[in-house]
């Protein structure tokens, strides 16, 4: 579970309802079923027009990727590749075949399998880079869906408000009900803006961030695979992959290595 996603949504919506409470309002003041139906269903409908049912059917899996991260982190990638380098150095590249079968990450497994199969290095890099481009294209569809939802939602909210004001104007002979009617009309705008900025656009941003992290991890895997195929020793493999880490993470990793070395000497 991605705690940042859950905590961010809880904080954003919590702030909205806390602010409402501090102003003396209540949740029931914001509940307007017709406005909710118009904004939510209308937004989805407008997005469907510019997309396809097939793409929209992928929304559940896209949302799963938002709340549950399956990406390898950079440290895990280095540890895995250094482990493979040690096996290749000790038992030969063909020994990686058994290790590759235990890998859950499809991209990493493919990279190792290509090396085991003796694929030329130029072709290995080309195949893996093509995989990255295809992955970016797939993820771009998810980002586009939620960006589009975020674009339509405020507009549908305004449409709901205009409809509410039209209904209000039809009741000018009942001035006692106008205040409530105006408040109800603007609830639609609130729904549209809130769903756009507290749900759809943050999810699109999260998907973009996930893609960037995955691309970086995959580029590190390519570097590791190429280094192993070139016959580099594990230390060189690690050094080449460390270049992808920010300075703080490099220092932290070096510090952890020194501490592990001291523990071994003490034992």
Question: How would you characterize the overall build of this protein?
Answer:
- The protein has 267 residues and is an all-alpha fold.
- It has helices at residues 3-22, 27-30, 33-49, 53-56, 59-67, 74-91, 96-101, 106-116, 121-169, 178-229, 234-242, 247-266.
- Helix 8 (106-116) packs antiparallel against helix 9 (121-169).
- It is elongated.
- It starts with a helix and ends with a helix.
How would you describe this structure in keywords?
single chain, 267 residues, mainly alpha, 12 helices, 82% helix, elongated
* Helix percent band: over 70%
Span between termini = 37 Å
Rg, rounded, reads 26 Å
Give the helix/strand class.
mainly alpha
Question: Which runs of at least 5 residues are low in confidence (pLDDT < 50)?
Answer: none
The fraction of residues assigned to DSSP E strands is under 5%
Oligomeric state = single chain
**Which series of helices and strands comes N to C?**
HHHHHHHHHHHH
Q: Could you give the count of β-strands?
A: 0
The overall pLDDT average reads 85
Largest sheet: none
**Mass-distribution shape:** elongated
The count of helical stretches stands at: 12
């Amino acid at each position: 579970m991605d705690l940042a996603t859950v905590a961010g949504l809880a904080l954003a919506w919590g702030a909205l309802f806390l602010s409402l409470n501090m102003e003396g309002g209540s949740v029931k003041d914001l509940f307007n079923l017709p406005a909710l139906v118009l904004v939510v269903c209308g937004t989805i409908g407008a997005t469907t027009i510019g997309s396809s049912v097939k793409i929209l059917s992928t929304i559940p899996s896209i949302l799963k990727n938002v709340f549950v991260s399956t990406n390898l982190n950079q440290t895990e990638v280095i540890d895995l590749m250094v482990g493979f380098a040690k096996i290749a150095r000790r038992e030969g590249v063909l020994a990686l075949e058994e290790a590759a079968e235990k890998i859950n990450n499809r991209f990493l497994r493919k990279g190792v399998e290509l090396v085991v199969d003796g694929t030329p290095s130029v072709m290995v890099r080309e195949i893996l880079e093509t995989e990255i481009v295809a992955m970016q294209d797939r993820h771009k569809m998810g980002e586009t869906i939620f960006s589009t939802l975020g674009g339509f939602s405020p507009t549908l909210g305004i449409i709901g408000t205009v409809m509410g004001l039209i209904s209000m104007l039809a009741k000018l002979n009942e001035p006692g009900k106008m205040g409530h009617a105006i408040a109800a009309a603007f609830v639609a705008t609130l729904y549209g803006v809130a769903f756009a900025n507290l749900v759809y656009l943050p999810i699109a941003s999260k998907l973009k961030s996930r893609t960037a992290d995955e691309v970086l991890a995959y580029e590190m895997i390519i570097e590791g695979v190429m280094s192993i195929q070139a016959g580099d020793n594990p230390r060189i493999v690690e050094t080449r992959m460390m270049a992808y880490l920010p300075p703080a993470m490099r220092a932290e990793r070096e510090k952890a290595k020194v501490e592990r070395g001291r523990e071994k000497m003490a034992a």
